[in-house]
Amino acid sequence: MRRSTAAAVGTLTGAALIIGVRLSVTPPEAPVATAPVADLGKSTSAPAKKPAENSTSKPPGNKAKPTDKPADKPADKPKSGLQDGVFKGSPAANPYGKIQVSIRVEGGEITAAEASYPTANDSATINPPAIAALKQETLKAQNADVAAVSGATYTSESYVKSLQAALDAAKA
Amino acid sequence: MGTTVSIELVEDRPDDELRRLIADVCAWFHEVDARFSTYKADSEVSRFDRGGLRLEECSADLRHVLEACADLWRDTDGYFDVYASGSLDPSGYVKGWSVEMASNRLFEAGSHNHYINAGGDIRMRGKHPDGVPWRVGIRHPWEADKMSWVLALTDGAVATSGTYERGDHVINPRTGRPAKGLRSVTVVGPDLSIADAYATAALAMGEAGVPWLAKRAADGYDSAVVTDDGRAFSSANLPAAV
């Protein structure tokens, strides 16, 4: 199971504080509704209110809509516009891997939130491209048996004295 | 061009056929000289440079050379510059290209084992008469009768640009003055036209040519360099003979 930041879950349980900001704006690419995540079902949302939570329901849309479920919400809380269920955000890639956020909504309130981090070491570390380099070595001066010699462009005059000329003469 | 061309053909063919092949290659080099020599006022390149010819009126070969030189100017950050000396001089490309073309002609005529060495730039194909890869030495930049590296190649090209024959003849296009820092640059790769231009460009860059050459290895061009103060560098996959 993904590592979760227990502290964050504990803090958010039963409250819509931080995530509540999202409630008042049009959701961006809103979380894609998926089948409820079993893990969150046993999460620390113990203080969660309702036994009649819809953890088995498949919330349809991915937009915040007015819920028409029987209101479990306390009457004095504003309508949040969230469907009950568990929602996962699309995985967002960053240099260290994919991060996915899930929220659990019960009674129109977010009761749990979790961010998953890759546990496998698939983090894409940013490596500078391997810089090719010429290696330094000792300059050799060897006599060798060769068929041809490559050198700076010789003039016709200096050719005569060159190694290539000696080779050519030997083969003629 | 004022340089000497050595050709070795390894062919089991009648003498007169081999001589015809060689004569064909020599005729080609004369054609190249007539077209591209900047020393000849009536060469096509000189006439073009003076404005006596429009680009559309130029031969296919000249247009190809000019286009290739434009690409190389870009690929070498402007260090391969046919206008570096003040007037149009594509000989840094033409030298290697003419040998590359000559080797193609020989190959198409059925000669699959040969080498052509034009002024120190070599294109080889196939194998030495003993059935082994061609062994090519890189001339030591100070001791004319010694080699600083020995390579073994079947198909490939070796181009060397250096200051120890014709002096500081390679201009740094950024300063307009003779390039300093490298005494000898050898580039080894599949195409002699490119190898020749790379060697010339690297020499023009001075010491900055060393890391620039290192990057060319990824494109299949290896190198061996000697600085003015005698330090030697080579790429990891230089095809050295064992």
Write a compact overview of the structure shown.
The complex is a heterodimer of chains A (172) and B (242). Chain A has 172 residues and is of the alpha+beta class.
Pick out its properties.
heterodimer; A: 172 residues; alpha+beta; 5-stranded antiparallel sheet; disordered N terminus; B: 242 residues; T-fold; 7-stranded antiparallel sheet; two-stranded antiparallel ribbon; 6 helices; 11 strands; globular
Question: What would you note in describing this structure?
Answer:
The complex is a heterodimer of chains A (172) and B (242). Chain A is of the alpha+beta class and 172 residues long. Chain A folds into two domains: 6-116, no CATH class; 142-172, no CATH class. Chain A is 17% helix and 19% strand. Chain A is built from five helices and seven strands; from the N terminus they run H-H-E-H-E-E-E-E-E-E-H-H. Chain A has helices spanning 6-12, 20-23, 38-41, 156-160, 163-171, and strands at residues 32-33, 85-88, 92-94, 97-106, 109-116, 135-137, 148-150. Chain A is rod-shaped, with a radius of gyration of 35 Å. Chain B has a single domain (5-234), classed as ApbE-like domains (T-fold, Roll). The mean pLDDT of chain B is 93. At the A-B interface, strand 6, strand 7, helix 4 and helix 5 of A face strand 3, strand 4, strand 5, strand 6 and helix 6 of B.
